Amino acid sequence: MNEPVTSRTYAAQLRRLAELTTRVREQRTEAWDWYEQQCAAADRAVAESADEVHRAEQELAAARDTQEQVDAEVAVLWQELNSRLGGGGRRAGAPPAPAPEATGDPLALLDGVRELLRRTRQPGELPGNVNPLLALCGVGGALLAYVLGAAVRVLGSRSDDDLAVALPVLGLVVTLLGPVLGLIPARLIADRRHAVLSPRPVIIVVIAGLATTLLLLALP
């Protein structure tokens, strides 16, 4: 037969059981708190990741829009450069590919290119080394006008009635237009050099043409 349990031993066992129950409850509460903390941390991490993904998608969409804008602007500027160089776009070729090591804001760089093209679009002055060529334009225009005027005067001398009077006058007028006639090739030279026909080239052409016209008219 089992020996009877004393009241002291029974009370000790009850206290032991109560302590174990309390410890288990505390550990269970601690485990549950830890679980909730981990779940909350995981939820925060997922939410932060979702925000980062959303921001990355927005940045990617903005980058694509910027790329399309830059590509379109590059095509326009490159076409303008080709038209400036001439040759139907064969001189400059195709636009260059983006450089992998390039840094900086592409829109700011395009603004710089646009400003450079704007400045180069403005015509400049003809250099001084073309002065002899301008003088030749004046001389050539005067010679051409003198020859045409002489031909008209000869035609008038062979005519009768009113033409015999009008054609010599017309021939003289054509001859006197010689100094101005040289401005036509001078203008072509200025356009080819992307320059403006300022007063200096005009004066050179007119003086050379006028001197040639006076010299031709002074010939016997």
Secondary-structure topology with pairs:
Blueprint: H1 7-85, H2 106-121, E1 124-125, H3 131-157, H4 163-176, H5 178-181, H6 183-192, E2 195-196, H7 199-218
Parallel strand pairs: 1-2
Helix amount, in percent? over 70%
Tell me the overall shape: rod-shaped
Uncertain residue ranges: none
Could you tell me the radius of gyration in angstroms? Answer: 48 Å
**Biggest sheet, strands in spatial order?**
1-2
How many structural domains are formed by the residues? 2
Structural class, judged by helices and strands?
Answer: mainly alpha
According to DSSP, the number of beta strands is 2
Question: What is the element string, with H for helices and E for strands?
Answer: HHEHHHHEH
Straight-line N-to-C gap: 170 Å
Strand content: under 5%
Give the biggest sheet.
2 strands, parallel
Helix count from the secondary structure assignment:
7
Mean pLDDT: 80
Explain the overall architecture:
The chain has two domains: 1-97, no CATH class; 129-218, no CATH class. The termini are far apart. It is 77% helix and 2% strand. Strands 1-2 form a two-stranded parallel sheet. The protein contains seven helices and two strands. Helix 1 packs parallel to helix 2 and helix 3 (131-157) runs antiparallel to helix 6 (183-192). The protein is mainly α.
Tag the structure with descriptive keywords:
220 residues, mainly alpha, 2 domains, two-stranded parallel ribbon, 7 helices, 2 strands, rod-shaped
